[in-house]
Amino acid sequence: MGNNLVDKLRKAAIKTPSDYAKFSREIEKIDTLTEINISYLASYTSEVLSPYIVVELAKKGYKGSLYFAPFNQFEQEIHSLDSELYLSDPDVVILHARIEDNHQDLVLRFAKYSDIDLNLMADNIIQRHKLMLEGLRNKSDAKIIVMNFGNILMTEEYFNSSPVIQAQYLFLQRMNNSLVELCNKISSCYVINYQELFNGIGLNNCIDPKLFYMARIPFNSNAQIKFGKVISRTIAASYEPPAKCIVLDLDNTLWGGVIGEDGISGIHLSDEYPGNVFKDFQRALLGLRDQGVLLSIASKNNLNDVLEVFEKHTDCLLKKSDFSSMQIHWENKASSIEKISKELNIGLDSMVFFDDNPVERDWVRKQLPNVKVIEVPKNSMDYLRVLNESTFFDRLALTSEDKARANIYHQEQHRKNDLNNSISVDDFLKDLKMTVQIGFSDDFTITRIVQLLNKTNQFNLTTKRYSSADLIKIINEGGKVLWLSASDRYGDNGIVGVAILVEIKQREWLIDSMLLSCRVIGRKIETVFLAEIIKILDGNNADFVYGQYLPTKKNNLVSNFYNQHSFQLTDKKNNLWEFNLNEGYIIKPNYIEVSIKND
Amino acid sequence: MDEFNLGDSYSDKFIVTEDVVNKFADFSSDFNPIHIDQNFAKSRGYSRQVSHGVIQLSYLSKMIGMDFPGPGSIWMNQTVNWLLPVFVEDTIKIVLTIKGRSSSAKILTLSVEIFNEDNKKVMQGEAQVKITKNLSSQLNNEINELKDLNLLQDSKEYLPNKSNSTQRVALITGASRGIGEAIARKLSSNGFRVVINYRNDANSAKKIVDSIISSGGDAIALQADITISSDILIMSKKIFSKWGRCDVVIHSASPPIKLIKTEQVKYEDISLYLNTHLKGAVLLVENFSKSMIQNKFGRFIFLGSAALYGAPPQGMAAYVTAKEALWGYTKAIATDMAHYGITANMVSPSLTITDLTSEIPARVKEVEAMKSPVRRLVTAEDTAYHVAHLCADYSGYLNGINLPITSSPV
Amino acid sequence: MIDDMKLKEVISNVLGVSIDIINDNSSPDNIDKWDSLSHLNLVMAIEAEFDVELTPEDSMDMLSVKLIRMILSDALNN
Questions:
Q1: C29 part of contact set with chain B, CB < 8 Å
Q2: Is there contact between B and A if contact means ≥3 C-beta pairs under 8 Å?
Q3: Where are the domains of chain C?
Q4: How far apart are CA C78 and CA C70, in angstroms?
Q5: pLDDT reading at B374 higher than 80
Q6: Contact present, A318 and A285 (Cβ < 8 Å)
Q7: What is the pLDDT of residues A323-352, one digit of tens each?
């Protein structure tokens, strides 16, 4: 029922406020979507945004339940524990204190301020935000979304080169920089670029003075719809990691023309039109790769023809080594994608398909409904825009692991090849010269830990999703959050494992979460991890350690994990396994070097 | 004035009897023997007594004052040239012809010619007559009625007979339309005989009368300008002679409301409203209270306005002032005359949309309606209902109140 | 001429009431969900659906469905 509605929503023409109102009500009746409680604190009448947020979230599979605080009640709601804000138990809190509402002089009388005044004003505004965000974080684990500062009363018809307006713009930029710095220090806190959003909509198209003056409604219904879409998109991005891999066609996608027919000198790929269109697109794809998205190819072509382009075409920015997987043959593309998925150990729902041929797209959609298919426009000049606008790659964080990912996968290829040559698994593993380090989460590692917790599906015993705020709470209550990093002779894999341990009774601990990145499955690293966990808990005088397996569609491979490691099944219904420290002992391989990072 | 055109003519005959001549001699003390002694007259060469010339002027006075132009005329100027003697028992014919008219000054110039039986002109002259009133044929009828009733010749104050009918009578001023009309209809359906007073719109008044009568009620229409004392006097006499009583007087006549910036208001603007509202009320009380006192029952109800409550709307200084003055008068009557069984009250409705305000766009009316707590505009019937309530016999304890009909607290 | 069905649909969607109960007399008096906030939603929705601009006075005069129709008519004719 819920999925039908999601489909219906995506296909229906929902354009006007009336349309949104109608569908918003229908969504209220559904209870099969993932529920998210959202609280909105604003300096304006925010209730009007409700149908837009609800409908756009529902299109992404979420049911938003919204609480709108009375306007300008920030401190009252945030600093009081029994306020409606906290009673509504939000998963997400949105905060928007606009200078257009609270500091009209900064907007309309900017010239009256001296530099000293401006610094003071900026400090005050940022300080206020600091107190609000910290106050909120102290009392709630909810994700926080803050809007940055803009001046949407300024339209394109203003003479924007005037020194006053230039100075005002710079002032806003400084405040926005400070705001980003502030939010980086607060866990699970994201900034929406309100300023750029409205500049993009076109300021003339946003404003309806009568709504503002009569009812403090900040902008017209068109702008409300767009704002609602951005908010929903940001919320979804905070729950879902970006796609991990893009599967690309070649002909008329990475270059103009067909390599098999036009030959290497006939395809369009150059610094002149139309070749420069494709060259820029390649550049954009590399940009995706820089952020950790793997590039792969599914193309019906002769491999040698393609390799020739990568090796010899001087304007081809993409090289063979940029691709983590290549399926270049004459079989159907759905099976190519499946093969890539297996090869890279990436779930189909984390893969994006980009192909200029609508027939291919349709085929993949039907065969692999979980794969995300980009609706590629007819005009190749629009490829870049569509790629950058795509929500599939939305991300709210970028870690060094992300940046290095593509290269790590590249290194992985070598390992796989090696595997085919080795004599025995154990020998192979020994040969890898693996070292593992285990440590306790801190400011540097927590982002990666959260990332793994939220995206790892296969080797994940309980598949519990946590935000950094959740983890901090666990630690504060006496729990332990561990990371495991692994390297071998081919390189450093970075942090690839996480465990969360909580004391449930005196001297009895539960392994609340334990996971390993799919990259390092099958190397006994999990055994080493478990053994170290037991050792650490022993050091805490634990008598019993419990582990739980919560089955999902994807984690079948660990269904027997605790059994394999000498845990006893103690509660069949809840799949709870028990390890008695006084009696048991975990055998771990001796070819993996382990060290514990001490704080 | 418009009825008199150049060339219009009127004539009448009189017999100058010996009796009339002798009475005139008595009246004037002019016993000149030529007028009263036949022998003396003969001795002077006349066949018989010569009538006083002035007697012709008396008949002329009657003609001008009662016939042509008629009542309301003021005889300003007369030239007289007697050409031949008029003897006793002669029949004379007086012919008046309009020789000139001044519409602005409302003055007619008449040629006066008097002829004897042999059609010889005995007198020639010119009269200038000022017309003070629009003379209509209806007025002539009313005059005739009064003549029938022998009222005009009685200069004493007239009091109505103690009526033998117990049906109450109500006079409503300004009853040819709007609130006045609604009140008249309501009172009629409550068993009153009603007098529809109007100033100009005879047709509408007649239609209302006809409609009331055809529903089984009793009504008459009487023209009167209630700012003119004599008009009200005549109207009152007609009412008393027809129905013998007047129990209820409702004063709803009003000039149309004109908005004037207060800083531009002159006293004349205020006078206009004072005349209708206050002077009219005073004249009504003056003419009708005596019979009410006699009958130990009376009701005076004056139309006020919701504009009297709180801050008045802009531009209504003249109107509001006059209505406030009327309210003061109402309270005085209520206090001083109540022991006679007479109550005086005011009823103040919100601006009532009637046919006169039909140029107001439908949307504006609808918005006003929705802004009212009861979500509709006040109707003339709303006011009429409550006026009728105040007129009832049982409302003797409702006195000196200003009843707001506004759908919300004032 | 206003598309009456379209207007009723908009009102029904925005206020969250069945289209059957909407008639000329419908107003905040007899529709609970028609409060000050949903009134503004009505203004915005009608502007978007009929592509008109309403003035603040128009907004304040929209005291009943009958009045909405009159006001929308005026706005469309200007």
A1: yes
A2: no
A3: 4-16+26-77
A4: 13
A5: yes
A6: yes
A7: 999 999 888 899 999 999 999 989 999 999
